[in-house]
Fold these 2 entries.
Entry 1:
Amino acid sequence: MFSKNKKIDKLLTLYVPLGMLLSFTLFPLYWTINTAFKPEGDIMNRPLEYAPLNPTVENFVMAWNNVGFATFMKNSLIVGVSTVIVVLICSTLSGYALARYQFKGKRAFMLMLLCTQFIPRSMMIIPLFIIFKNLGLISSPLALIITYTAIEIPFTTILMSGFIANVPKELEEAAMIDGCTKLQSIRHVVFPLLLPGIVATGVFTFIYTWNEFLIALMLTNRQDRFTLPVGLSTMMGEFNVNYGALAAGSVIALIPAVILFAYAQKHLVNGMGGAVKG
Amino acid sequence: MFKSKFRKSIAVSTIATALLLAACGDDESAGKKEVSAENGKPVKITFWDENAGPQRTPIWEELISQFEEENPMIDVEYVGLPKDSAKSKMDAAIAADDTPDLASVQTSWLPEFSIREALLPLDDYFADSELNGLINEGALNFNKDIVADKKLYGIPYTQNLDILWIRKDWFEEKGVKIPETWDEFYAAAEAMTDKANNRYGYTIRGGAGGSFQLQRMMYAYNGFEDYLTEDGKATINDQKNVEFIEKYLSLYEDYTPKSDITNGYKEMIAGFDTGVVAMVQHNIGSFGEHKEALEESQFQAIPLPKSENGNYVAEGGNTIGISIFKGTDNPDEAWKFAEFLNSAASQSFWNEQVGQIPTNSDVLKEDWIQNSPHIQTAFEVYDDPNTVLYKPPFYLPEYRSILDGTVDSGIQSVMSGKASAQEFLDEWAGAMEAAQAKYSEHFGK
Amino acid sequence: MSYSPEVNEPVLEKKKNEKVRKFNKAKLVPYLFITPAVLMVVSFLFYPIGMVFYYSFQNYDISAPYYNSFAGLDNFVNIFTSDKLFFPSLLNSLKWVVTEVGLQLVFGLILALLLNQTFKFRGMIRAVAFIPWAISGVLASVIWSLMYNEHMGVLNDILMRLGIVDSPQAFLASTSTAFGAVVIAELWRGIPFFAITLLAGLQSIPQELYEAARVDGASRWKSFLFVTLPQLKNTIILTTLLRVVWEFNNVDLIFNLTGGGPAHSTTTLTMYIAELAVHGSNFGYGSALTVISFGILLVFAALYLKLSRYEKE
C-alpha cells in the first residue's frame, strides 16, 4: 500500500509501528528488571545505572524468604484458578442467553449487571466483610473466590455475549440441519470458534484476581492465607521503601502471568477457516 | 439442552459442596479461640503488626519464637499488615466485631479505638507486672491523658522523634555551621543550595502526610504548649504561625526542588538519599534507609531548631504500643505476650534493629544506645527538662481527616501560590475548632 | 383439518401438550442460563450496594459512631451547593475517561491489527506485549513514580541526555504536566485490554470476506473500513462501554502517583470519593457522592446502549 516493494511495505506497516509500541510497552518492564538486580544502595546512585554495575540476586532472595512468597503465590493460584473456572461456566451460560435469545427482562438483566460495576470496591468492603463473617468464611479462599466471581461475572458475561454474538447463528442451524442436535452443534461448531473469546475472558479474570489487593486484604485475617498483592504491599512500609525487593517481588509475581499469556495467545488464532468450508 | 444443564448442575453442586466444606472446614471463626490450657492443648492468640515489611516481620517472628519457647502452652499467630492500610483494616475489624487478641497500635489511634470500646484497659495488669516502674512515665501518662476515661490502653514499646537529617559532609565542605536556631536553619538552606550542581538546601513534604511534619516544624518554632486552648480556640492561626508558614513555605522552589509539592514520604527521602538535598525533616526511624544509601560519615541527625524561647519542642505521643482488644477470649495469655514484648530484652532487640528509642529504662544503659548518635540526639531532646511537649487533640475523631484532607491540600495551595498563609491557617484552625465544639457539645465537656 | 373428536382428541391433546411443553421449555432456557449469574450477584453484591445507598442518607462516621445520625437529603444538598471540589472533580473525571478510553481504543486497535499479522517470533511478542495488563495497580504506580522522579527518574535522565530539557522536570508536581503524566501511565496499562479483546474479535472475521473484498479490488484501507470495522462493531461497543465504566471508577494510579494533586488537578470524582473513604470521616457523605456517580454511569450506560443500537444488530 505504501510502496510497491513488499519488504519496505512490511517494514512501514508492521515493523516500525510494532517496534514503537513495543518500546513503549517494554521500557517500564526493563526498568523494573534493572532495578530488581541492583543492590538497594545502588538504586539511588547517580549517574543512573542502565544496567546494574553490581548485579545481585539479594532482592529476590529477600522477597522470596522474608515475606513468605511461596505461600502467597500458592494462595493466589488457588483463588485465581478456581475463580476462572466458575466465572467461565457462569458467564458462558449467561452470555449465550444474552447473545442468542430475546427474552423479557433482558435489558434489565444487562443493566443490573452493569450497575454492579458502578460502585467502587472500597465502599463495599465492610458489608462484604459482615456477609462472610456470618458465613464463617473469613480468611478462607472461598470468600475471595465468591467475591471475585460475583464482581467479575457482569464484566465477563457481557464480554462473552459479544464473542458469542460474533459466531453466526447460521452455523449452528446449518449443523442442526446436517443432523446434529442443538447440543452437538454447540459443542462442535460454536465452541471451537469461541475459543479465542474464552481464552481472552479467562485471562482477564485470572489477572484480575492475581492483582486484586483491597478485598484480599480485608477478607483475610491470617498471614498464611494472604495473596500475593497483600504480601507485596508489605514491602512498602512508611519508613522502609524497599525498591529493590519490590521490583524483585513484582518480577516474580509476573512470571505466572507471562506463562499464562504465552499459553493463551496460541489460542488467539483464527479458527473460522475450517468451519465455514462445510 | 442436556449439556448446558449438566454443566450448570456441576457448577451449582461444586459451589454448594465447596460452601459446605468451607463452613465445616478449618476457617478462622470455627477454630479460633476454643481450646484452653486445661485440655492440654496450647492457647492460640493472634497478634497484628501495623507496619509489616521484609525488615520488621522477621524481627517479630524471632520474638514470637522466643516467647513460644518460654511459654509452650501459648501459640502466637502473627499477621503483618501493610502500613498504608493497617488502620483501615483495624477499623473494619472493629466495625464488624472481629478483632485479634492484641496488636501493635499507634498511640494516636488509642483515643478512637478506646471510645469505640474496642480495647481492654490494662491498668490492673500493668500495676501487678514487673514492667511497673520500668516503662517511661511520660509516655504512659500521655497515653492515659489522651483517652476519654483516662485509662491505660496501650503499653508503648518504642518512641520516635522528628529530627533533621543533614549531609554533614557538605556542611563541612562549605564551612557552614550546623543550624541550632531557626535563623541558622534558613541561612543553611540558602547556603547549601547550588542549583547549577543540582543541589538544594532543603526539601518539603508537600504531598501525603506533609501535614504532620509541617505541624511539628511549626510548633517547634512557636513553642506553644497548647494546640487547643481551654476555651476551644486553636493556636494554629496565631500570628506567629502565619509568619512561620510564610517564611517556611517560601523556601519552596528557591531552595527546594520543584517536585516537593507532590512529595510523599518516598520521594522526599529519595531527595536526600540520592544526594540532591542537604537537609530533610523526618524521624529517627528512617535511619535504616539512609544507612543503605549513604556512608555513616556523610549524614547525621540533629534536633529541630529550638523555639524562640530557647526550648526544644516535640510532639507528645510519638510512640507505638501494644494494645489488647476487648473481644479477646484469652486476656491473660495476651497480656503475657504484651509483657514479654515490653521486656528489656525484647525492646532492646526490636529497637536496635529498627533504629528507634526503647521506653524500658533498663535498655537505656546498653552499649548500642550509647554508641548510636541519632538516638543520643533524640535523648538530648527528650531528656532536656526545658523541652516542651505539646499535645495534639488525638481524641477528636476528625483530627486525622482534617490533617490529611484540609491541611495536606492547603499546603499545596500555599506552595503553588493559590492561597495565602493566613487563609490556610484560618481554615485549619476553623476545622479544628469546629470539631472541638462538636465534641464538647456531644460529651458535655 | 377435520377429524372425529372421539378418535383424534387424545392424540391432539397429546400433541397440544407437547407443543405447550416445548414452548414453555424453550422460553425457560435463557432464564435458566442466567440463573447462576443472577444468584451470585444478588446474593453477594446487592447487600453491599444497598448499604451504600442507605449510608448516603446518614451521617456515618466509622471512627466516631457516637456522631451517627440520620441526615436525610443533607449530604446531597451539600454536594451540589457547598462542595467546592465536586464540579471540578466531575470535570476531571470526564477529561480522564474521554482521553483514556479514546487513546486506549485507538492504540489497542492498532496493536491488535499488528499482532494479527504473521511474523517471526509472533507468539513471544504477543505474550510480551500484553504484560502491562498483568501488573497490579500498586506496582505499576511504584514503577512509574520511580521513572518520573525528579532526582532519580530515568525519564528525566533520558530527556536530559537527548538534550530535550536542560534540568530535571517534576512531572508529577506541576499542575500542567501531572494530568498528562498519569494519563500516560494508565494508557500503558490499559492498551492490552483492547489489544486482547480486539485481537480475539479479529479472529472470528471470516477470511472469505477479505478475499471477496480483494476480488472486488478494494485497497487495504478500504477493506479495513468496510470489512474489519463492521465485524468488530459489537466487540468495540461492548469493550468501550465496559472500559468507560472501569476507567471512571479507576483510582489506583492516580492515588499512588499524585494523590489527586497537585492542588487537586488530578482529582477525579472517584479519587475524591477514595480520599474521603481513606482520610475523611464522613462515610455517609462519601456514600452520597458514590450514589451520584452511580446515577451518572447508569444514565450513560442506558443512553449508550440505546444509541449504539446494540440490540438491533
Entry 2:
Amino acid sequence: MVYVVIIYLWTALLLYLLLGGADFGAGIIELFTSDNNKNRTSITMSRTIGPIWEANHMWLIIVIVILFTGFPEIYSAVSTYLHIPLLIMLMGIIARGTAFAFRHYDAIEDNMQKLYNKIFRYSSFITPFFLGIIAASAVSGTIKPEADNYLDAYIFSWLHFFSIAVGLFTVSICGYLAAIFLIGETETDEERKRYIIKARSMNMAAAASGALVFAAAAHDHIPLAKWLFGNAVGITAISAALVSLILQWQLIRRGSKVIIRVLAGFQVTMILVATTFFHYPRIILFSGERYLSLMEHHGDDKAIESLALALLIGSVFILPALFYLIYSFQKRIVN
Amino acid sequence: MNDFMAARSQMALSLAFHIIFSCIGMVMPFFMAVSHFYYLRTGRIVFRNITNAWSKGVAIFFATGAVSGTVLSFELGLLWPGFMKHAGPIFGLPFSLEGTAFFIEAIALGFFLYGWNKFNKWFHWFTGVVVGLSGLLSGILVVAANAWMNSPAGFTYSNGIYSNIDPVKAMFNPAWFSEALHMCLAAFAATGFAVAGVHALMIVRRRNIDFHTKAFRIAAIFACTAAILQPLSGDHSAREVVDRQPAKMAAMEGLFQTGTHVPLLIGGIPDEKTGRVKYGIEIPGMLSFMIGGNTHTMVKGLDAFPVEDRAPVLVTHLAFQIMVALGTLMAGISILYFFILWKKRDFSKNRWLLKLFALTTPLGFIAVEAGWTVTEVGRQPWILHGILRTKDAVTPMPGIQYTFYLFTAVYLSLAFFVVLLLYRQIKMVPVLYDIPE
C-alpha cells in the first residue's frame, strides 16, 4: 500500500507543479509584461484560469496531507528545519490567493486595483521561488539537525546558492508553462505573438537559470551531474525533455495548442522524473550520510492503508469532476 | 512573550481567523441554493440578484478560507512538530478525506461561479448545492480531528510509544458527533445572524426593501432554527465533557472545590491564586442538578486534579459564560421571530425587531470564537488530552514571537480588506442589483 501512497504523492506534486505552476506563471508573466499590456494579460488570465484556479492549488493540500499522515517524521523534519522558507511561501500563498480574489470581486474599481495587482504579481514570483528553495534544500544535504546555533540550524539549512538557483529555475518553468497555456487562449493574433515571445524568453530564462543551477551545485559541492546523468533513467528523461523542447520551438507558431501543451507538460514531467529518480526513496538528505526515506520512515501500516484507501476513493470523485470542469470551460472558450 | 506562548497565540490567531471564513464558506452556499431555487421556480429576478450578491461574498470568503486553511495545514507542523510526528498517522484520515471534500468544493465552486447561462440550469443549481454539502462535510471532518485531540481513541499508548493504530476508530472517536453537531449548528446560527443582521440594517435604512427583505428571511429562518436547536446540542456536549474531561468542565464552571449540591455560577471572576470566585451569582445546587438530575450529584472541582493538569480557569470560564449567554440570547430572539412569523405579522414593519437583528450581527461569531476558546484553552495543558502536553510538542525553533507578530499583521490587514470588500459589495447593491421586475 505504501507504493500507492508514494505514487499519489509524486503525482500530486507533479500536478501542482504543472497546474499550480502555470497558475503562478500567469502572475509572473504579468509581472514581466510592459505596463501597456498588463491589463490585457490579466483579463485573459482571469477569463481562462478563473474557473479552475482554486482547484489548481488543492494539489498542495493533497501533498501536505499525504506527508503528515503517511510520513510524519519527514513532515516534522521539513517543517522544523525549513520553517522560514515554508513561512515565506505561506505568506506568498495568502497574498496571492486573496489578491486574485479581491481584484476580481471588488465591486468598485479604483486605485485599490493597482495594489491588488502589485501584490498578486510579486507573490506569484515569490511563492514558486521559495517552493524551489524548499525542494532544493531537502536534498542538498544542508540540513544539520545537530547544529547548536540558530544560523546553522534554521538559516543555512536553506539559504545557499544551489537552492536559490533552483528557486529561479522553478520560477522560469512556471512562467514558461503559463506562456504556453496562454498562447492557446488568446483572442487576437497580436496577443498570441506576445505570448510566443514570452514563452521564448521564459525558455531562455529557464536555460540560463538551469546553467546557474549546475554552477551553484559545483560551488556548493552537490553532485548534481551524477544525480541526473549517473543512471539510465535520468539520461533518458533529460534527453526526452530536450527533444520535447526542440519540438516545441518548432511547433510554437503553427502547432495545435493541445500538442504544444502536452509537449510542455511532458518536458516538465521528465525534469521531475530526472530530479527525483536518483534519490528515490530518499526524500530528505541531511548533512553527513543521514537521510529520511519514504520506504524506511513511513508511518504506521494501518495509517498508510487507510490513507491509500482515502486517496483512491477521493480520486474517484475528484478526477472526473475536475476533467469535466476543465473540459467544459475549455470548450466554451473555444466556442 | 516566550516562544511557547507565542506559538500558542499564533495558532489561536490562525484558528480564530479561519473559523469565521470557513463558517461562512460552508453555510452561505445553502442560503444561495435556496434563493437560487426560488429564482428557478418563480423566475423572479430579485432572487437571482440575491443569489448573485451572495455568491460574490462566498467567493471572497472561500478564497480567504482556502488560503487560511492551507496555512493551518502547514502550521500544525511548523508550530507543533512534536505532536504531528505521533498524531499524523492516527488522525490523518479525516484530514485526507477532508482534502477530497475540499477539492470537490473548489471544483463545484468553479462550476457555480462561472457557470451562469452556460449549463443546464438545474445542473448549475446542483453544483451550488454540492459546494454547500462538501463544505459542510469538510467542516465535520476537521472537527472530528479536533474531537480526537479531546478524546483520543484508536491507538494504545505506553511509555511514549503509540501502537495498535486504528485510524477509523480515531476518526469516529467518542467526541466526534457532539462536537461536529455543535459546530454545524453554530456555523448556521452565526452566519445566519450575521447575514440577516446586515440585511435587517438595510431594511431599517430603507434601501432596496424587496431585495433585502427576501434575503433577510432566508438567512433568518436558517439562523433561528439553528439557534433554537443549539442549546440542546450544547447540553449534550456538556454532559460528554463532564464524563471525559472533568478538569475542563471544572474550569468552564469556575469550580474550585469538589462536592455535592454544587451551585451553578453565572458570571464571576475566578481567581486561581485564592481559589475563589468574585462577583458571581450562584444558583444553589443547580450544577449538580444539571449534571446528575438531582442536587446530591458529586461534581469534580479543580482540587481533584494536580496543579500541572489544570486548565487556565479565568479564560475558560469567561469564554464559556460568553458563549452560553450569547447562545441563550440568540435562542430567545429566534423564538420571538418564529412567534411573529406564526402570527403572520409583517416584520418589515416591526422596526424594533429589525433593529434587534441588526444589533445581533456579530454575536454569533463572538459566540463561535468563545466556544472554540473553551474547547482549546480548556484542553490545556494537553495538546492530546491526557497523553501529550502542549509544551512538549512545540517547535524547537526560537524566535516564534516574531512569526506571531508577522501573522498578526498579515491577518489584521486581511481582515481589513475583507471588510472593505464586503462594505463595497453592500454599498453597490442598488447599482448592481436594483433591476425592476
